[in-house]
Specification:
By secondary structure, the chain is α/β, with parallel strands linked by helices. The protein has one domain (7-192): Flavin prenyltransferase-like (Rossmann fold), CATH 3.40.50. It is built from seven helices and six strands. The chain has a six-stranded parallel sheet with strand order 3-2-1-4-5-6, sandwiched between helices. The longest helix has 16 residues, at 177-192. It starts with 6 loop residues before the first strand and ends in a 13-residue tail after the last helix.
């Protein structure tokens, strides 16, 4: 389906990998996209643990979310939605987007999506993307995986979602954690059709 919108939804849930979410949102904004962000309470706990970032879902602070890389000019294309604000435009199929990414995606969220449950805004927006046949990218970060979790991934893949586990490669000769984060962000952007130059690709000199 051709892209008909400049809007991209990023949902952050309670899986480990807060750094992926922070980098992804910034890269999308810098690429000129309008980013709609929503986060779960568990995601806030992960941000505090992994990035020493304290967030309040009811009074969201973009400067705290972006951390030391915060640039006020990025906020012109950034919008935050509370997890229980079902009146948000992104909750409707009539609101056009270029895709949605759930990064990282907890196994609880994965199970809800695979079974068509809509207990929060992330669930609802993902359901919208599936029914509207729009790009939905799910970035699970868990190991090992049970047969239930694997089955949920297959069910989502069969419904049209892209299952893109946070499994960074090493062929690009990473020198830092940032290089590993960039690997996953680049792969997500590839599936969204967003151009990036964050890493050296296989076969490039």
């Amino acid at each position: 389906m051709p892209q008909t919108s400049n809007h991209i939804v990023v949902a952050v849930t309670g899986g480990s990998g807060a750094g992926y979410a922070r980098r992804l949102v910034r890269v999308l904004l810098e690429a000129g996209y309008d980013v709609h962000l929503t986060m779960s309470a568990a995601a806030v706990q992960v941000f505090a643990q992994e990035l020493d970032c304290i967030l309040d879902l009811n009074q969201f602070d973009p400067e705290a979310f972006f951390g030391p890389e915060f640039s006020p000019e990025l906020l012109d294309r950034f919008q935050y939605h509370n997890q229980f604000d079902f009146s948000a435009g992104i909750a409707s199929g009539s609101f056009r987007t270029a895709g949605m990414v759930i990064c990282p995606c907890s196994m609880g969220t994965l199970g809800s999506l695979a079974n068509g449950l809509s207990a929060n805004l992330t669930h609802r927006v993902a359901d919208v993307h599936l029914k509207e046949r729009r790009k939905l990218i799910v970035v699970p970060r868990e190991t090992p995986l049970s047969s239930i979790q694997l089955g949920n991934m297959k069910r989502l893949a069969d419904a049209g979602a892209v299952i893109l586990p946070a499994m960074p490669g090493f062929y690009h000769d990473p020198k830092s954690i940032d290089d590993l984060i960039n690997f996953i962000v680049v792969r997500i952007c590839d599936h969204l059709g967003v151009e990036t130059s964050l890493m050296k690709r296989w076969g490039e000199k």
